[in-house]
Write a structure and sequence with these properties.
alpha/beta, single chain, Rossmann fold, 7-stranded parallel β-sheet
Length: about 240
């Protein structure tokens, strides 16, 4: 059994997921990289962590499928003996105009962004209950503003925050916290699809970097007294 805390990051083969996994792995966590299809990129993430002196492994699985989720969670505990934190990062962001959005596309966003977070959290909770643990959800400013990705994306991310709130209330007696991180206008494949304004018009004159999400995650991981919160990382585009 690992004597160090173990963190699972879903959808961590690239982008924000990779950045969070690399930062956690470089900060003393044994890190599990979940991926659906990008094995080469997942392996690269593992190697980056190992090169920095951390310990990591990768596990393939479609986290929108219950059977795959069970296999991934069992794989984490089987290999490392424990699970202390889960980052529900896996998801999709298809840029679709309102008039082009159909039922199949809407349901796909719900499946990969919301259902996946539910399945992973439900499977992880029995293991998190052993020591008190952390559930972290990747949301978006679109959950509040509607955003510019699609109605499906905005609705799915709003659902993620509702799910987070439920767990925050109902898992307090187990010393499990649940919080969300909501990036906006952060460098990613999804953002590259958008017709963005000139970077100079953004709050800091640039897009955010994936590695700038780590301080929020670190605070969540280290603070037992923080639960039920959404931390916006967007250079002040949405102010609470």
């Amino acid at each position: 059994m690992s004597e160090r805390k173990v963190i699972l990051v879903t959808g961590a083969s690239r982008g924000i997921g990779r950045a969070l996994a690399v930062a956690a792995g470089s900060s003393g966590y044994d890190t599990v990289i979940n991926y659906r299809s990008s094995e080469t990129e997942a392996t690269k993430t593992v190697k980056i962590i190992q090169a920095a002196g951390g310990r990591a492994l990768s596990l393939r699985g479609d986290v929108s499928e219950r059977g795959d989720v069970t296999r991934v969670i069992n794989g984490v505990v089987g290999a490392l003996g424990r699970l202390d934190a889960v980052v529900n990062n896996a998801g999709i962001g298809e840029v679709i105009r309102r008039e082009d959005l159909d039922q199949a596309t809407f349901e796909r966003a719900i499946r990969y962004n919301l259902l996946s977070a539910f399945l992973v959290s439900q499977a992880a909770i029995p293991h998190l209950q052993e020591r008190g643990g952390r559930l972290i959800f990747l949301s978006s400013g679109a959950a509040r503003t509607g955003g510019s990705i699609s109605a499906a994306y905005a609705a799915s991310k709003a659902g993620v925050e509702g799910l987070m709130h439920y767990y925050a209330i109902n898992l307090r007696s187990d010393r499990i916290t649940a919080n969300a991180i909501a990036p906006s206008f952060v460098e990613s494949d999804m953002i590259n699809q958008l017709n963005l304004p000139d970077a100079a018009t953004l709050p800091l004159g640039r897009l955010g970097r994936p590695d700038e999400m780590w301080p929020a995650l670190r605070m969540i991981l280290e603070t037992e007294y923080l639960t039920g919160q959404t931390i916006h990382i967007d250079a002040g585009r949405y102010m609470t």
